[in-house]
Amino acid sequence: MSYIGDYTNSYDIRGHEIVITAPARFDEKTGKVMADLELDDYAAKLALEKYRKQFDIVSPEDIKNLRHYWDFSQAKLAEVLGWNVATVAIYEAGGLPSVSDNRLLKILISSPKVMQKFIDDSKKEEL
Fold first, then answer.
1. What domains, with CATH codes, occur in the chain?
2. Which of 16, 17, 68, 92 has the greatest number of beta carbons closer than 10 A?
């Protein structure tokens, strides 16, 4: 038998210790934490969210919103930025952008004029 209770754990994310408290499954007899994929995934997601806030990292939703604003598919955004489409997909699935990609995304999200310049430049490159 098991029960669910709060558990504080630390995660090493890019060399930074991120401490979170989240629900976890415990063994009733031993009181030890048990594996629970759903709860473990939730805790990891909370740790990533805390890291993103602490270090001002764009979220998957931010990237999706950027795409939707410009009515782009993942492939079109990748083309405009000169990235591989897998990079966009990974970031939208929750992967952390590199420092330089994060910096670029923050600029493009906050400045439609800069994004329009990227779009215009990518059209010139097609010719």
1. 2-55 (no CATH), 60-126 (1.10.260)
2. 92
